[in-house]
Each structure stands twice: as C-alpha cells, then as structure tokens.
Amino acid sequence: MINMTGRRIVVALGGNAILAKDASAEAQQRALQETARHLVNFVKEGDQLIITHGNGPQVGNLLLQQAAGSTETNPPMPLDTAVAMTQGSIGYWLQNALTTALAEQGLSSDVATLVTQVVVSDDDPAFTHPTKPIGPFYDLTAMQKINATHPEFEFVEDAGRGFRRVVPSPRPVDVKEAGVVKAMVNAGIIPIACGGGGVPVVSSHNQLIGREAVIDKDFASEKLAELVEADLLIILTAVDHVYVDFNQPTQRALTKVAIDELREYVTDGQFAAGSMLPKVEAAMAFVTHRPTGQAVITSLENLADYVQTGSGTVISSQALVTDYD
Ligand SMILES: Nc1ncnc2c1ncn2[C@@H]1O[C@H](COP(=O)(O)OP(=O)(O)O)[C@@H](O)[C@H]1O
Ligand SMILES: NC(=O)OP(=O)(O)O
C-alpha cells in the first residue's frame, strides 16, 4: 500500500470518466457517479483532492445545439462562453456525484465547482493552427455537408474513428483562480476547477477578455498542479499505462519512468499528438517544475491498483527505478 496520506493531488478526468457513447445528461451523471466512487478513496486516505476535467465532446455538442436553436434575438454564445457553460454543467454533475459518493463512505466534505479562467497569449501559434477535436465524429459525407454550410470550420481525421471539428488550443500561461483553488483546499473543500481546460482569456488593460478556443485539460491541469504546489498529478484516461510501440506486437507498458527516458520516446514519435502526447508532455512539465512530485497516467479502472501497488505509468524527474511490464 502506497502511503499517500495528506498529499495534495490534482486528478484530471479524461473523456471516458464522463461520457462513453450516450451523451444524455442521465448517462453522463451515471458515469460521473462511478468516477466519484473511485475518487473518494483518496479522501478516505486523508489526501487533499483537486479535480479537473475535459469537455471536448460536451462543448462541441453544445455549439451544435446553440447553432441549431439560434435566432436573431437569441444568438449562439461564443466558444469561451460555451466552455464556461460546460464547466457549470459538468461541475454540477460531478459536485453532486462526489457528495453522494462521500456520503456512501460515511465521509463528508464540501465540494464546489469554480468557474476558472486560464490566461493564454494572443501570440500563441495555436490561434492560426486549430488542433483540438471537439464534438461528435462524422463520416466523410457528413463532414463535407457541414463544411459546405460552414466553410470556416476545420476538420481532422481522428485516429481512424472519423472526422471531427478542430478549434484552436493555446497553451495555458496562468490560472487566474489558482489562489482561490489553494484557499479552498486549505479550508478542506474539494474544488472542481479548470473544467474543459479553463475558459481561455487574455489579459489586457486590467481586463480579462475571452478567446474562442479550447485549452487542453492536461496542460491546464499541469499548470494548476504547479501553481497550487501539488505533490501528485494524476491523469486518468482510457488506458492503464502509457505504452511504447502502442498497438503493435512489440507493445510494452511503461511503469516507472524518468523524464529523460520519456523525452527520448517523445522524440521517437511514440505518443500520438492530440491524445497521449499532451498527457506525457504535461506529466514531464509537472515533474520538471515540482522535482519532488510525481505524475501518474492510468485508467479509472486501475486507480485502486495504483493506490494499492503503484500500478500505472509513474513519471518522476529522475530515474528511481525504470522497468517494463
Ligand atoms: N503510446 C500510447 N500509449 C497509450 N495510449 C496511447 C498511446 N498513443 C495513443 N494512445 C491513445 O491515447 C488515448 C488517450 O487519449 P484521449 O482519448 O485523447 O484522452 P482523454 O482520456 O483525455 O479523452 C488512449 O486511450 C489511447 O487510445
Ligand atoms: N478541454 C479538453 O482537453 O477536453 P477533452 O479532454 O475532453 O478533449
């Protein structure tokens, strides 16, 4: 059993922790209820939890709903506002789910969702090169039909699963509410923050101005973890480990890995851009800024094993032990 008692942990929830196939509110609430039951184990151990989450499918779906129902007097909301709306909806579900899961274990803690603004730079090249997939997958015909009506939309083919709209995804520079998150944790509250990577804003003349983009939640979570001086950044996704030679006969799981070794795999093109690469980069950035900390990439299903045995991909600033499954 790993002793994690009293550690400050940022847990970033990936897509499958919220939405599998069914995008109804009920199905997402059910998925989050299951997720919350896993997360509560950390509270049981006495750890301080800060939860972040993605919003790619949800914010894309919301934009579609907005477009479908819009009129001259009821215009669609811009993307930054849509991100804030998904922070509210997912935060509401998760906050309730956690409260229930805590009660099931005889625990009680306040849980609160914080609308979080993440500062980005207007000079970020991402604004002219959209890469962040949002919303549903389309086949070629459906994608071409949408593109005929919306020539301004850009699409990419996403890992053999179809086409998805892409939007700019600038790197986080600062988390405006990091101090509030820290104060909440210090007061024993579980904050849900940086939802959907945070609302992208730029700072100008004492004002924060929204930008139409979706920040990668792994990078935003890393920035937050750094700013709140977390001990651990846990990135939950669909796979229990990061793999070298992923999906090939020579595939092997990385268990304990130092950043120098991981950097070589990045150079070698081992991690897919837009899926595993941002997670690996976020993990490397975290342990670079917090050399005494660790980053973990694993699945929700493997979380209990991680707590018991350290199973999962554990990234450290230095080679402690390096081995493969
Ligand atoms: N080298 C790799 N090791 C493990 N998974 C990989 C690798 N390269 C790509 N992947 C894929 O990346 C996915 C995680 O990215 P993604 O689905 O975008 O994350 P999220 O859970 O945040 O929505 C994994 O489920 C896996 O299919
Ligand atoms: N904002 C974000 O990174 O969302 P996903 O993790 O759902 O793609």
From TrEMBL:
Entry keyword set: Arginine metabolism, Kinase, Transferase
Pfam family, one: AA_kinase
InterPro entries hit by this protein: AceGlu_kinase-like_sf, Asp/Glu/Uridylate_kinase, Carb_kinase
Aspartate/glutamate/uridylate kinase domain: residues covered: 8-289
Reaction equations catalysed: hydrogencarbonate + NH4(+) + ATP = carbamoyl phosphate + ADP + H2O + H(+)
Gene Ontology MF annotations: carbamate kinase activity
UniProt keyword Transferase present: yes
Pathways involved: Metabolic intermediate metabolism; carbamoyl phosphate degradation; CO(2) and NH(3) from carbamoyl phosphate: step 1/1
One cellular component term from this protein's GO annotations in UniProt: cytosol
Family membership noted in the UniProt record: Belongs to the carbamate kinase family.
PANTHER family in UniProt: CARBAMATE KINASE, CARBAMATE KINASE-RELATED
Protein name (record): Carbamate kinase
Native organism: Secundilactobacillus odoratitofui DSM 19909 = JCM 15043
